[in-house]
């Protein structure tokens, strides 16, 4: 069975979620490696060794990471991404453009509900192809009971849209945990934030663009699927994360309506 660690990153116009797919031994190895990334920052820059690896805070130098200069924060992000790549975990990414082509108020459901459903569909397909199952562990969110009820319905009645399926490979229920208690939920947050950043944000400094692209290049080989749904549109959003996928990747096999 695989563990799927899930977190989100969003702006006014975009909503993204990432799933980090790991086996038990990988979960232990990666947790230890991420602890070491923070421990190094604690030695080099007096960061609290219990500091949370939160994408926005690390990238922007906020919270526990406010004393670090930009190069050091890039180093933290790079260390975390390198640890994920070396553990050979798998990554699934979904997004939604919630303002623009379709006004947010016109969407039939909240962005979190839509993107989570799309992500769960891809998790289910990922483990089905590998003849195994998944347990989903996500950052705490509003209305956890609704999301658990939704999963129960998806399991018995199927999901909606062109890729409707029974989510019969996702076991038990959705497990919501505080992100500060799970390095692997934090890893999913780092992924979701950086994916949204490289996909949707134009940096004012070319050096920042190059740094982001270099960071993402570490993750690219382990991305199994990535797609942003634009309601009412047929074109995928294009950006640095749209580089040619590795052989066997599911990154380009998607319908714009799922």
Description:
By secondary structure, this protein is α/β, with parallel strands linked by helices. The protein has a single domain (2-242), classed as 2-Layer Sandwich (Nucleotidyltransferase, domain 5). 43% of the residues lie in helices and 16% in strands. The protein has helices at 24-45, 55-60, 70-87, 111-129, 144-157, 183-200, 206-219; strands at 2-10, 14-22, 90-97, 134-139, 175-177, 223-229. A six-stranded mixed β-sheet has the order 5-4-1-2-3-6, with helices on both faces. Strand 4 (134-139), helix 5 (144-157) and strand 5 form a beta-alpha-beta unit. The radius of gyration is 18 Å and the shape is globular.
Topology, please?
Layout (H helix, E strand, L loop, with lengths): L1 E9 L3 E9 L1 H22 L9 H6 L9 H18 L2 E8 L13 H19 L4 E6 L4 H14 L17 E3 L5 H18 L5 H14 L3 E7 L29
Parallel strand pairs: 1-4, 3-6, 4-5
Antiparallel strand pairs: 1-2, 2-3
Helix pairs in contact: 1-3, 3-7, 6-7
């Amino acid at each position: 069975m695989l563990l799927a660690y899930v977190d989100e990153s969003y702006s006014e116009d975009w909503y993204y979620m990432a799933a980090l797919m790991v086996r038990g031994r990988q979960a232990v190895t990666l947790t230890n490696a991420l602890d070491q990334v923070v421990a190094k920052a604690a030695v080099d820059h007096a960061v609290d060794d219990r500091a949370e690896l939160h994408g926005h805070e690390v990238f922007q130098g906020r919270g526990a990471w406010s004393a670090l200069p930009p190069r050091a924060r890039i180093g933290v992000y790079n260390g975390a991404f390198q640890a994920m790549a070396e553990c050979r975990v798998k990554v699934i990414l979904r997004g939604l453009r919630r303002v623009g082509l379709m006004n947010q108020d016109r969407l039939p459901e909240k962005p979190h509900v839509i993107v989570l459903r799309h992500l769960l569909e891809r998790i289910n397909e990922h483990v089905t192809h590998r003849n195994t199952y998944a347990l989903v562990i996500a950052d705490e969110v509003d209305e956890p009971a609704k999301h658990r009820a939704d999963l129960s319905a998806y399991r018995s009645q199927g999901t909606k849209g062109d890729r409707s399926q029974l989510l019969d490979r996702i076991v038990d229920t959705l497990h919501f945990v505080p992100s500060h208690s799970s390095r692997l939920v934090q890893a999913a947050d780092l992924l979701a934030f950086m994916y949204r950043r490289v996909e949707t944000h134009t940096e004012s400094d070319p050096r920042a663009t190059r740094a982001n692209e270099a960071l993402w290049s570490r993750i690219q080989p382990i991305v199994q699927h990535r797609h942003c749904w634009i309601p009412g549109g047929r074109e995928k959003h294009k950006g640095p994360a749209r580089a040619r996928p590795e052989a066997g990747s599911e990154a380009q096999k998607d319908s714009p309506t799922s």
